[in-house]
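Researcher: Last one for today. Full complex below.
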Amino acid sequence: MRALLYRHLEPEGRPEPGLSPLNTLIALLILLAVITVIAETEATLTGVHAALFSRLELFFGTVFTLEYLARVHAAGEDPRYRGLVGRLRYMVSIWALIDLVALLPFYFGILGTSNAFFLRLIRLLRLLRLSRLGRFSKAWDALADALHTRMHELMLSVGLALVLLVLSSACIYLVEAEQQPESFGSIPRALWWSIATLTTVGYGDVTPITTIGRIFAGVTAVAGIGLIAMPTGILAAAFSDAFQKRREQEQDHG
Amino acid sequence: MRALLYRHLEPEGRPEPGLSPLNTLIALLILLAVITVIAETEATLTGVHAALFSRLELFFGTVFTLEYLARVHAAGEDPRYRGLVGRLRYMVSIWALIDLVALLPFYFGILGTSNAFFLRLIRLLRLLRLSRLGRFSKAWDALADALHTRMHELMLSVGLALVLLVLSSACIYLVEAEQQPESFGSIPRALWWSIATLTTVGYGDVTPITTIGRIFAGVTAVAGIGLIAMPTGILAAAFSDAFQKRREQEQDHG
Amino acid sequence: MRALLYRHLEPEGRPEPGLSPLNTLIALLILLAVITVIAETEATLTGVHAALFSRLELFFGTVFTLEYLARVHAAGEDPRYRGLVGRLRYMVSIWALIDLVALLPFYFGILGTSNAFFLRLIRLLRLLRLSRLGRFSKAWDALADALHTRMHELMLSVGLALVLLVLSSACIYLVEAEQQPESFGSIPRALWWSIATLTTVGYGDVTPITTIGRIFAGVTAVAGIGLIAMPTGILAAAFSDAFQKRREQEQDHG
Amino acid sequence: MRALLYRHLEPEGRPEPGLSPLNTLIALLILLAVITVIAETEATLTGVHAALFSRLELFFGTVFTLEYLARVHAAGEDPRYRGLVGRLRYMVSIWALIDLVALLPFYFGILGTSNAFFLRLIRLLRLLRLSRLGRFSKAWDALADALHTRMHELMLSVGLALVLLVLSSACIYLVEAEQQPESFGSIPRALWWSIATLTTVGYGDVTPITTIGRIFAGVTAVAGIGLIAMPTGILAAAFSDAFQKRREQEQDHG
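Model: Here's the assembly. Have a good evening.
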């Protein structure tokens, strides 16, 4: 019985690749629980369907508690977590703690307070974990490989972006502060406009009105294109490398 | 006669590559019919040119009916669709059904009702189909190849984007809900701002006004750049692979 | 004398690569003339500096007339354009016509009318031509090579974008037409919002207000990212190919 | 003593790769000083924490003066800067001058005037310099290599973007000038809208209202996508090349 649970709950215990049907079901339930948490913050929904939400909460709380207990029980199959001390060691492992933290709001009855939803959103982390084990594990590896190999280049382009952000804010502050003190009266205030322009989001709630300010804005917007082009180019080259490396490894094995 | 129709209407029946002149003409007519449907929704146009639109409708309805009958007739050349039963089998094939569905609004006289235009826009699918047969068939293959090979990586970046979207909405809801309950009063409401920022669309109809909210917004906008850079990088690497594979295949044949 | 002019004016007559000093000077003058045309449309500038602008116009008109005559004279060095008939043949060649058209507004005294500036902006084409001859000729080749090789893929992604544009407009029209007839009352009207969202420009002058409309808008914005990622990926792969081909050619020559 | 200072301050004097602990500390202090300068422009902060800011100013002024003197002293270890004349030669080297200029506002007591903060932001340049010496030096090389090799292609795409910008402004000026003279009454005025659209920033403070103007705007927005895709594609290909070259060099050494 414990061996069976272990094989279905713990991906390491499963001989076939991919997620077990039970873990797929749990992933779906986590997704539903996350959607419930999101919907629950909307007062117009909780007002009308209050009973539904409390019943869903009870359902998810019960299911995830049972899942947690089953995982603790099944962990005994793993030589590292054998016995009572082993179980305690399992319970303080990072993923078991995340499972537990996501359960806390249910037990302390602090549902509905403004921050409890954050503890329950932690379940998103559990989704990420399950995705790493299923069919997406190779995609994760390629992604992590690409990001890791080119980390310095990516950090450098983030650094250059920050320097650009400060310089652009300082320039616009210099020329627009007098005309629009509310929005450009200091460098920290000008940062808001600057980041919206450099990332090409462009809310338009704050825009320069002087001619020289608009010229700076144009230069900033064009620099923003470079800001997008640089990490995209680095990532494209990194993915190209990562995919090629993987192909060569597969050919060596074949 | 039927063989001639088959050769001109069915791309499989044509020895040369590319679209036959008749199919090119049909593609142009479909394009015109789609433009007519689009223009017809504008009341200021239908008011003035009502007669023109009803005549165009009659024209396209007649032409596409004749084309449909000709295709059904010509299908007999194909061993699979020989005889009356074969014709019926042809008529329930996916592309023949699309042809038929796009004709329905014409026959039921429900033109002008608010949803009928959707059935007629289905003709866009027919355009896509014709493009797959003509000079763009290789481009389609390269596109499909690139998307298919890197599907897991692309889905993973969509998944990460969704997690980012939820977290960003939750953060902004936490800090802005009190100040702007209308726009940030719940996570579903905050999603609207969040998606506009993460995709760098930035409508600006809703923007955070607290300092901490603006810092979150800045982080979200920068994360949005990563959100664009990641699929672009994956697609660039995938296209690079797909083009190279194709070149090697051509060299092997040469 | 004519041989000297030919060597300095016609890049084909120049043994060294790159632009001759005279052509570099002409390029600079064209740039200045274009800036003058741009500035001249601004009434607050022409009001104050009217004399300056008319003198600049006289100057550029004279210089470019002399240049035109010199080019016609020098063309005699080229065997194709020898003699009076040859000169006439030169004068109807595409680039000589562009030179002439850009001079017309000066001679007809129609400066200041609302469309004459367009004829004079044609000088921008002359700049493009000069850039093709100078140090950028290799960059032009790489660019043209990349665009040409992947033309079908790029046209296909433009085609998909148009289909996406129509579908997105049709969807938003369906759900928002009643609420905002002015902006979403027909598919052509909805196109304005649709193109601003799909290209991630996001003016924000028109935004959906219904919940279902906002969900469609979110999907459209995400599709817009794909719309940007696809041609970028294709171009990245195409440039990668073009640069590599060029390197291999250079190695073969070396 | 001087040799010790030299080894810790001058990266060339350090046998190990990367930044010395002392230089890492200085980099952190520079970062803090920059943040202080940024915060100091905000009147609501300087009003409340005036004493804190003047103490921070005193602290950074003293520390960076000591650092400057130590660097001048330690420069004697370098054969080029030996003796009094050598020290003077060091003091007029580009990086020593930047160090000095950033100190000036502190000594002239002109803090608080509107432009002095710019001299102090020059410290950002010092950060860039330190980053070139530390773990990011290879990333800098790859970046500079990619930008340098494809400089002509990148400049060409900037040039094409400028031509596009002028043409798009001229078109929108032609069709919208009468309706909105304030925003589109001349080509220079239209440039503001044009650059916001081509870079896909899209503030939305100025948008065309005529149908033909909106069609031009749509074309401009789509051209803007090409404007982003081209440099991104060039950079992606350039990084791909730069990384591959580097890998081959490392394999040759190994």
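The mean pLDDT of chain A is 86. DSSP finds 13 helices and no strands in chain A.
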